[in-house]
Amino acid sequence: MKISVNWLKEYIPVDHTVEEIANKVSLTGIESGPVKLGEELTNLVVGHITSVKPHPDSDHLKLCQVDVGEEEEIQIVCGAPNVAADQYVIVALHGAHLPNGVRIKRGKLRGQESNGMICGLDEVGVPAQYMPKEFENGIYVFDEPQTPGQDVYDLLGLKDEMVDIDITPNRADTLGMRGAAWEIGATYDEKPKFTKPELNQDKVKDLTDVTATVEEKDLVPDYLLRELKDIKVSKSPLWMQRRLWNQNIRPVNSVVDAANYVMIEYGQPVQVYDLDKLPQKNLTVKLAKDGDKLILADTEKSLNHNDLVIASGEKVLGLAGIVNGTNAAVDENTTNVLVEAGVFDGPFVRKAAQRHDLRDDASNRFEKGVDNGIVSEALVRVTQLIDQISDAKEISKEIIGNYTKAEPTVIKGSIKHINHLMGLELSSDEIIQIFDRLGFTSELSGDEVTVTIPTRRWDMEIEADLVEEVNRIYGYENLPNTLPAGMETRGGYSAKRELSNKLRDALLASGLDEVINYSLLNKQEVDDFNILNSEYTKLLHPMTEDHEYLRNSLIPGLVRDIAYNQARKNDDLQLFEQARVFDRETGNDRPKELPFISGAISGNVIEDAWNTNAKPVDFYYVKGIVEELLSYVNADAQFSFVATADYGNLHPGQTAKILANGQMVGVIGKLHPNYQKAHNVNDTFVFELNIDALFDLNTRNVKATSAPKYPAISRDLAILVEKDVENGQIISDIFSNGGKYLKDVNIFDVYEGKNIKANHKSLGYHLVFLNPNDTLTDEEVEKAFTLVKDSLVQKFNVEIR
């Protein structure tokens, strides 16, 4: 909301700079900034065109003789189609500065001298979309004679100074000039003075030809009408027009402009209708029927049963609290007018405005709230303005569709408690004085104060609100600096967050780069990697189809990142993301948020160099990173990787579930070739771990031990085994039979090919035995080694080589 300082002066004495006012208001908790219109404008005056004749060398230019208050008239060449003799216009003299760095100089146009420029409103700073439509393609012409040579700035509001208030949703009372006057006046201890609007009672008649019906009274607590007969629609006066276009509202005519003016003045939206265009002499506020149409100037909206509308008979005139259609629009031929002021349910208005993409100044006010205590007065004010400008013959009394008496809010508080919460020692008189500055009525009884809040401040309900108002007006900058009382809480991360940070640091140390992706996916992406077997969580009002669902995996986002980079020739990538996924069980409305950490690696992990060859990523490289990551969990658990073909978008021969004591904690694998092709990525390996599941594992107790005093003994074992037997099964069996001195088993050779049986593979293992308390003998080692070989032969039908 832009608060015009010149307009504000009608309510409170203002002798401060706009910068000072904006700063003062900001210190009360409402963000504000100064706006100075037309600072760059110079040498703009009123000109009177005394004669116009065609340019001798142009079919559209004209030679205008213009009186600009100097001893002699000046000649200006003008190409505007609406230029004519005896017009009073805006003239930019030689040396004038206009917006966007434009400077006017004397010169010649097609051989004819031109000593300035006759201007349109858009050329002097009024945006084209807010200037009167009749001047869209030409110069601006004053409706009444002006003094040639006088500055045009005040006449047109070109250099108005404004305070731009960026309100919070609870302070919609400042969306009107009167509410803003109370707020700004309170900061300077100045009470605004308002003139109550009054109608010419000789014109007020008890007309009964129009009725109002409200079917949804719970959504429309107030709905009032007034009828004006035999008016003459004309242009609104210049003082009204300039205030409207400075508020980014286009002047239309004397009736529509009066309604818009009162919306800015009171913060109360008002609508007007051509009474003679109504199918019936009745306005009904009701819910629309599915398929009803609202005809607007440039489009047509299809309505449904969730839309609250204003209707006459079966014809929809407008969306309640938002916009009127063209069915009963007021134009220059209108003679009888119906004026509407009401209060409409904020959430209902907001949803309809969003649904039909019709948010505007009126809906914004209803969404945030309007003062139901001034609806009747605002209606009188609009009627008064229309009568003053358009001269109605008759005015109806107030026509009531629904009316709810506005009751002020009464809040009780304690002076001592208010001071305690602020950390101050203000006297009761000082606090009551602050309430008085705000226009509140106070009664003091001992320490208890009873404050009556006017209806314009509907945001106030409890004692804490009183404390906030005292703080604001007293000045936050004047509050004493004190340390908080009570027990202090030492900052830090939770144990689970500490684990998450540790895993993140481990991946960064391994050379992976962290990314952050959107938590919203499209339908296909949540299908692609639903490893959790979760129900999908869809947004009620998604922004786009690509952001409809909450993610159930981090892998789709990482695949997007890989595809984006590889499309730009950045092929060697090692990325990870630590974030939350959303798991919703069947029957639950709200999903659980689970912390996950996932990675994706593609391209070469070792670059080609003079002493090394490039090495592409493979399953075992990524598995090594995951094993390193799991070591940081410090869990008292046996981690294992079990091959699986359960996931359709992962390679069935290079994918494994990650288990901890048999419980699944993650997955690792290569993207399926078909999936890679569909998403335009090269060979990519991914992994994903559930941090919650890792955190829930028992912690391993780590004890320091001295270096062994006795030497270890090693044995190598080569076996021939069927291809289907997994290495993990072999190692597990070796540990089961190797005895208590078997410390380590490593596979060092894998061979498939010539000179061995079909469908078999040769595996080589290195076994390490160690007794930390004594020297191992060959007999002890050989005995354990024999048990290992016998068990492998028996269980897996291996051949010892």
Short recap of the structure:
By secondary structure, this protein is of the alpha+beta class. The chain is 25% helix and 28% strand.
Folded structure, characterized:
Pfam families: B3_4, B5, FDX-ACB, tRNA_bind, tRNA_synthFbeta. Tetramer of two alpha and two beta subunits. GO terms for molecular function: ATP binding; catalytic activity, acting on a protein; magnesium ion binding; phenylalanine-tRNA ligase activity; transferase activity; tRNA binding. Residues 38-153 form the TRNA-binding domain. InterPro entries: aa-tRNA-synth_II/BPL/LPL, B3/B4_tRNA-bd, DNA-bd_dom_put_sf, Fdx_antiC-bd, Fdx_antiC-bd_sf, NA-bd_OB-fold, Phe-tRNA-ligase_IIc_bsu, Phe-tRNA-ligase_IIc_bsu_bact. By secondary structure, this protein is of the alpha+beta class. The protein has 6 domains: 2-37 and 161-187, Phenylalanyl-tRNA Synthetase, Chain B, domain 1 (2-Layer Sandwich); 44-156, OB fold (Dihydrolipoamide Acetyltransferase, E2P), CATH 2.40.50.140; 204-402, Phenylalanyl-trna Synthetase, Chain B, domain 3 (Phenylalanyl-tRNA Synthetase, Chain B, domain 3, 3-Layer(bba) Sandwich), CATH 3.50.40.10; 409-478, Phenylalanyl-tRNA Synthetase, Chain B, domain 1 (2-Layer Sandwich); 495-695, BirA Bifunctional Protein, domain 2 (2-Layer Sandwich), CATH 3.30.930.10; 713-800, 2-Layer Sandwich (Alpha-Beta Plaits). It is built from 20 helices and 41 strands. The strands form 11 sheets. A 7-stranded mixed sheet has the order 27-30-31-37-36-35-34, with helices on both faces. Strands 11, 13, 14, 21, 22 and 23 form a 6-stranded mixed sheet that branches. Strand 39 and strand 40 form a beta hairpin. Helix 6 runs antiparallel to helix 9 and helix 7 runs antiparallel to helix 8 (361-368). The model has no long low-confidence stretch (mean pLDDT 93).
